[in-house]
Amino acid sequence: MSNFEPPEDKELALEEHLVELRRRLLIIIISIFLSSAIIFPFSKKILLLIQEGVVPSGTKIIVLNPMEYLYMLILLSITLAFVVNLPLVVYETFMFIKPGLFPSERRFFLRVVPTSLLLFFIGMIFSYKLLIPLSMEFLISYAQGKAEPMLVLGRFIRFLTFMLISIGLIFQIPLVVSFLVKGDLIKKEDLKKKRKLIYGVLIFLALTVAPDPTPVTPLLILLTLAIVYEASILFADKLL
Fold it and tell me: Domain extents for the chain?
């Protein structure tokens, strides 16, 4: 064994690696399946709670075909099951790659991942409690007086999922910046000096990824990006 290889790397044969990977994937898949089965009986109530939480009162939610409602309930159950099992996914991933990591890499992984998960969930909560209701309020109020406001269930669920995941990912920026600063790949002072350039990139990004053509959702995403970027500068040398 080379001196540059991790001390506990057992140099497993390809077949053994595949068996181990299959075992851990099965654990994840079975856990998500069982969680989905547990969540599904409550999916109608969960959908109603989501509707009450983010959709303005008086707005109708419609389906375009008889199967769409059932399909969306199944999709909602699987999505929630995946979110619930995200820590398990991370754990099984770590246990699979652990034999090939140096002790310092393991410590880094164990330090970074909990912070990353926490930031992701904070981003999702921020999106659900603030950004999605504001965006829905504008979209519905804009239609009032011109047509009866209605939402197509499938499009609503996709919009909701996009906003939750995208804002959760945006909240990873402070961690990425902290990693780059710690590795001397960028300097904290450069993040301050190049604000104009970076804000130009953020504006382009917000306009590109926004799921609707109105100016409100891109603006909300841009404000989120700006807040997270400024927080990244503030905590650049503190997260890791």
Answer: 14-171
